[in-house]
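S., here's the first fold you wanted:
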Amino acid sequence: MTWIGSGKVRAREVGATVEITIDGLTTQAKYYKPLVYEFMRKEWRGARPAWGDHEVEIVMEHVGDPPWMDLDNLAKALQDSIKGYLFHDDSQVARLVVERRPGDRERITIRVWPRQTSAAPPG
């Protein structure tokens, strides 16, 4: 459950769930793909990509007015950045939840886990 990374991107494993946080927000969804991809390539030493269905939750927390960003573009960029590290292909994502909500700081949290019969994430 120890966090990996010390920059804008950090990650940890909690049971079968991988949680990735990205500090700060920008309105450019394309900014996140190389940022997270480079983190995964250089620093991630956790679980290897798995076959089977996965569930993905992406939460964008903002302070003040929400940024003008299409959540579908954000989801695609983030799924592309973790593809090959947490699952082999984004076609394995059987459930995707993307949410924007007010928070105490600006950040994005990605949670990924193998799909099971219950809707709650394991770990």
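And the second, which I think is the more interesting of the pair:
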Amino acid sequence: MGTSVRCIGHLDCDAFFASVELLRRPELRGKPVIVAHDGPRSVVTTATYEARKFGVGSAMPLATAKHRCPQAIIVPPDHDAYKEASNRVMDIVRDEVEIVEQISVDEAYADLSAMAMPKSAMRRLQRRILAETELHVSVGIGPNKLVAKLASDAEKPRGFCVLTRRDAWLRWADASPGLLGGVGPKTTDDLARRGIDTIRALSKVDEATLSSWYGPRTGPWLWRRCRFDDSAPVEPVREPVSESRESTFSIDLSERDEQEAELRRLAVKLYEALEHQGRRGRTVGLKVRLKDFTTITRSRTFPVPVEDEEALADAVVGMLREYDPPQPVRLLGVRMASLELVDGPGVQLALPLRH
């Protein structure tokens, strides 16, 4: 499998939102707690490990979670509290490690390559975070980001796991290729249709064949991925590659006028957020979830950045009209990708719509 001089750590706060809530409501400790808005269309944000024992998981419909764990206590999310707790944790991480890439509110990569005793340093960091925030983090250490991330997930909660590429291979060779970060459901399903349903099986396919199936970029990437090879650096400043806004409705939207009005509202919100960041994007995306939970996405890339909220709204409405949802809609989303910084006024883009 080879070796690498790099040493990468991945830190992940255990059941982060739920843990923050338990600090604020200590009477809930040891009980099954679900963090979610309590509504007919709500989904689980996170849950304590007591609730997870009943099969409750993140992104699960709340109704399903209640059925599996009827005794669960539902707590509404407080994102301001989570952001404050996240800042405290990440400030400690950055105080101990020079190169840190925060990838979400509750997890980060750390480049430990320059440390003489990285395992000791991470043990110390784990203890310091607990002492100063009362929050537990799981730590994974490996020769690259892929292995480090898998290692931090391997022994949750309160885990500390160190793996080489060979260790990772031995541990997960018979797991689904979907375990490998970046290998999504569509690719996983396509591989399964080709009779490849494990990482071991994927590793037996030569690079040229994978390139013929998935192209000259994705094919070689998959070939390296199933060997737990990952050269991505830890980048202290992580620029967003896309941004989106979406809404789930308590009552399905069946009228096209209502659907289009909601899309325009979301487009304005998204445009205002990007305007505040000084960013523009060339790729506009639409997400639609139907009454039966069928979810489709559509996207269109333009030659220059979209510089007007009305043009953004017209683009997603145009894609909605082309799709023509066959059922009432329970969720709508607007996304913009291929983001870039802009210093001043750009070119106004007129987007043609097909009716």
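Why I say that: The chain has four domains: 16-77, 80-168, 175-225, 242-341. The domain at 242-341 is CATH 3.30.1490.100 (Dna Ligase; domain 1).

Talk tomorrow,
H.
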